[in-house]
Amino acid sequence: MSTQKVFIILLNWNNWNETRECLASLRKVTYDNFEVIVVDNGSEEEEREKIRSVHTTYSIQHTIYSDTNLGFAGGNNVGIRYSLEHGADYIMLLNNDAIVAPDFLTELVKAAESDPSYGILGSKIYKYGTNDVVFNGGKVNRWLTKGEHIKNQELGIMNHEVDYITGAAMLIKREVVEMVGQMREEYFLYYEDVDWCLRACKAGYKCVLVPASKVWHKVSATNKEGSPSYIYYHTRNALMLAKLNGNIFQKATSYFIGAWILFKQIPKFFLIPSKRLWVTSMTRGVLDFYRGKYGRYENRD
Asked: Which of 33, 66, 83, 237 has CA atoms 20 to 30 A from the CA of 273?
């Protein structure tokens, strides 16, 4: 099994302290055929200097610097292309604010090798410093406009098929990337992992959660939940998911759902002043979806 070469991609954006702790946990990993790629996603020069100064200390085999923030999809795609060019059998996306169990990668590769239909596999994720499960697989609603994390621990210890795997800890086979392509950069941030999984499933592969593989995650350490950009991306990208992956009915429904979201914001804007920033972000998300304006969120306040 260890003959399978894995490239682990860590995306860093002005968050070196988190990346450093993640790298420290990777030094204890028992799987012996992996290399680490740190993709710095347009950080400030001071941040980049920190990475350069400890490059060998943390066993970083490859460092790639982007001049601009390419988003989650774009930044990871840089590492994905590099991995494919250098002989990867598997590519592991791992959030830089995650801490891994020593056998997390062994368990993922073992499961992947057990069934050729397993295309994308993920770890069971706990909230950092606790035993609280925050991801035990993902499910998508029938309209393809919402992805939800399964947090139920009663799913047991067996590997189980799910709708999607979160990009926070995702192992993907080389052949899957070659079949369906890289992540869509139009999303910039959020839902690009769900989109990737839907495309893999459409191509005949399965997405599988491997409970024996454990990761602890500092949820939203980079982009805080509830921030204007967070609300914007979740609103716009959820609608994009249906438009890019759905059948004719699901595509059409995404436009009606967008209109319903807009309608609900009108009374909130006038009656709940404390919600106006939230309302503005959601409204921009829907309108940009209608306009086909994808990519990075621009704060126009």
From this structure: 237
Most confident of 146-150, 170-174, 276-280: 170-174
- Which of 82, 85, 101 lies closest to 36 in space, CA to CA? 82
Strands (E), the chain: 6-12, 34-41, 62-66, 90-94, 98-100, 118-127, 133-135, 138-140, 147-149, 160-162, 169-173, 206-217
For the chain, domain boundaries: 6-217, 228-291
Using the 8-state DSSP alphabet, how is residue 117 labeled? Answer: T
pLDDT at 82: 98
pTM comes to 0.94
Structure confidence by residue, pLDDT tens digits, 88-143: 999 999 999 999 999 999 999 999 999 999 999 999 999 999 999 999 999 999 99
Give CA–CA dist 190/212, Å, rounded: 26
